[in-house]
Amino acid sequence: MEPPLVPQKKVKKLKQKKSPGTPFIVKDIEPDQSDRDKTSDSQRGGGSGDHEGSDECESVDEGFSLRLSDSYDSSGTLKLDSVSGESIRAAGVLDSREEGRKVFQWMIAPHSEASFFRDYWEKKPLYLKRNTPDYYKNLFSTSILDKILHEEKIHYTKNLDVTSYSEGKRQTHNLVGQAHPSVVWDYYNNGCSLRLLNPQTFHRPVWKLLYNLQEHFNSFCGANVYLTPPGTQGFAPHWDDIEAFLLQLEGRKHWKVYKPRSEEEELPEFSSENLSQDEIGEPVLDITLEAGDLLYFPRGYIHQAVTDEDVHSIHITVSTYQRNSWGQYLQKLLPRAVDLAMAEDLEFRKGLPLDHLRVMGVVNSDMETPGRSAFLSKVKELMERLLLYAPFDAAADQFGANLMHDALPPLLGPEDKMCSVHSGGERWCKKKQKVINRVELDPDTYIRLIRGNVIRMVAEEDGVKIFHCLENTREYHQEDPQFFEMSHEHAPAVEALIHTYPKYITVETLPVEGDDEKMTVARGLWERGLVVAAHPLENRDDD
Fold this sequence. Notes:
alpha+beta; 18 strands; three-stranded antiparallel sheet; ten-stranded antiparallel sheet; 12 helices; 18% strand; flat
């Protein structure tokens, strides 16, 4: 479900009420929406679908702000007293965004992040020869794939593809239903490649890797695992619609990578069909990946690979930035800008010239007439004027809300659980036959968001929606978008938690009017598992 895009103009300004605000949690929303289109093969279980925005625009206050004025200085800097986790000896001190950066740096080492984005990202391939076979060994292996086949309910097409490529023809050999291990391994022994489409669903280290990268890229990160028998090729030459990081886990594989064939095929929006060998030209990279090596190539780069005759290959492809371009942003922004401009500006509602069909169109495209020049000049003027009505932030919020639906849920550690509703708090005592360990937040309790990018706040006319990924599963889009509503009066508290992360703030310093309202907001976020305390809450049992 798309959050509405809200205009930035016209309506009365928000006033902070001195009386108690509306309850923090108004209701859970059950969105009425059809399933999104399946993702492409290159990122199934690892990529976001194409999202179309809502056709409706809702209005909010022109001066709408989620901030309480006395919580920010003249430069817009938050004045709340926030403290680092280390300074109060908090159980949780890590910054999920910084952890994501470190994981990405580990993945591409010894290249620095700065040099990678300057020299390679969306520009050209990177081949990293490490001579360290064990570098990625803890991520995944052939033995783990075998264990998953035996212990999990793996289905063809949804979780597993069986493929082959021979004499210029790519074939998929998927059966219907569950993929039984003996049948799958028989296909492998007969020269078929195996593609596990969503390893993060079944294997914790892959989930951890992808979630950390997701925090860094602010874009969904997915993965596929490819196992290829010796002396075979599983896929035809093709390009993908994702930024691809290939991490070689075992064995060897010979790769050929080719430039996009034209400027129109650079950084494509969608993956290609299977290509023939005579369509792809000469490779710009011809290398052999061995265990511990990395290969990166941008979307649009054609690639194919074959294993050596004497050894199998297994690698994991980490993917991101599927349909995450300026063009996709403008597809959300401009239709809403036109709607707002037509509602606000007379120039956009004036009729077209009487002669517009006589001067415009393909048959008139080579003509230079006063009427045609005037028409094009007017269009240019309106396009420039359109920017005045463009809801830039609301379009970004659509991307953020969509990410909350696409995203993997955070992998919580013991320090997160014992200081949050996920483990701390009330529980049933069999011996005493009653509920024990009653805990409560206090005004001086230090709290912060459980992860840096776990929520996205979207403003609407009658309140705000808080989208989050906490209740997603590791299976892509298995759940509907998760969000709840809150009042404008309570929203500054969420904004404060977003801007002070990874530091902690006390409940009593939340920028909401009234002590009861501060506690209402904090309890609501606590009960949903979205905030974590600096320390386990004190047991309030009477005995």
